[in-house]
Specification:
This protein has 10 helices and 15 strands. The chain is an alpha+beta fold and about 350 residues long. The protein has a single domain, classed as T-fold.
Length: about 350
């Protein structure tokens, strides 16, 4: 997903003498119209982040953002050996923090809503297929059966305590965590009075406000690449205002063996990487974590099942603005809901 910078900032002068207030407002508006966005970049959660925002005070909030993302990794990252999530999976503690409780509770909601297409219990399956911090083992049928049992045990939380029916069940929040991290960064910006920004953490994008010229942000949806090394090409672009967009695809994270490409998306029902014609899904939602989770659910379902799901839930979460790119006998094709196509920027 490629982001196109530009946005706006609006600050409201405090009450004062009438003429002074009008003059201050005029000067402030003029300043906002002239300023360029502040651009921050860095690394978090094993990927990049890119943040742009308009602030009349030109404050550099990178230290606060880096601190937030570091704390997030120490809680929910599977790539940090000492993270709370790693310790919970290892049975060293059952005490959740606010981040993990949010991720767990909302993962369970989406798991029920999607009939298990989205499932946070696939931790050991993802590891076994080599899409986590462990080397690929390609489980045989007996091992796969044991992993599926672990991925089907009951889980939940009471207050701040995590419980699991099967001690071998391990959680993996990679399909929701980056989206939630983007939501938290957005919340941090807004706590500083910033109402015009674009946050992108590894392709999980959230925007607020308009550019100073009154136009919305533009966000590019990547064309599925031939392989992980291909240069990104924009397939289409959308106007994004006060919303999030997340794209999930099978064309960057995969491995090949004997001419077969294995996607990083694991089907919780079979325990195996999905194999179907759907190459990428983009979902627009108000909350980035929700768009993130629904993208994964649709990638598990495949094109036909995903479209049937949307038809059955016309007013449900994550079923409004949705965009699919798929392979049809070697030809790249696309399908978008009306809500999504209304957002497409006409060239």
């Amino acid at each position: 997903m490629n982001t196109y910078p530009k946005n706006k900032s609006v600050r409201h002068p405090r009450a004062g003498r009438f003429l002074v207030t009008l003059a201050a407002a005029a000067l402030l508006l003029s300043s906002c119209q002239r300023q360029e966005p502040l651009r921050l970049a860095g690394e978090a959660q094993g990927t990049y982040y890119s943040i742009q925002y308009f602030d009349a005070e030109q404050r550099n909030l990178q230290p606060q953002i880096d601190s937030l993302l570091l704390a997030f990794d120490r809680s929910a990252s599977l790539w940090v050996d000492s993270s709370l999530l790693r310790r919970i999976n290892a049975g060293q503690t059952d005490t959740l923090d606010d981040i993990l409780r949010f991720l767990l509770q909302n993962s369970l909601r989406i798991m029920e809503y999607t009939d298990g297409a989205f499932d946070p219990r696939v931790g050991r399956l993802v590891q076994s297929w080599g899409f986590s911090f462990k080397a690929r083992t390609e489980p045989d049928s007996a091992t796969l059966a044991a992993l599926l049992r672990a991925a089907n045990g009951a889980i939940g939380c009471e207050d701040m305590r995590f419980f699991r029916e099967n001690p071998d069940t391990e959680l993996d929040f990679n399909a929701i965590a980056q989206g939630y991290a983007s939501d938290l960064v957005a919340r941090l910006l807004e706590s500083h009075g910033i109402g015009s920004y674009l946050v992108d953490i590894g392709g999980e994008v959230i925007s607020r406000g308009l550019k100073p010229d009154g136009k919305p942000w533009r966000v590019g949806i990547e064309r599925p690449a031939e392989n992980r090394y291909s240069e990104p090409v924009v397939q289409t672009a959308i106007a994004l205002t006060d919303a999030s967009v997340v794209t999930s695809g099978s064309y960057r994270k995969y491995y090949e063996k004997d001419g077969v490409r294995y996607s990083h998306t694991i089907d919780p029902a079979t325990g195996r990487p999905v194999q179907h014609s759907l190459l990428s899904v983009s979902v627009v939602e108000e909350q980035c974590w929700l768009a993130d989770a629904m993208c994964t659910a649709y990638m598990v379902m495949g094109l036909d099942s995903a479209r049937r799901f949307i038809a059955r839930h016309p007013d449900g979460p994550g079923t409004g603005a949705v965009y699919f790119i798929y392979d049809s006998c070697g030809t790249l094709k696309e399908y978008g809901t009306k809500e999504f196509m209304d957002l497409v920027v006409k060239q």
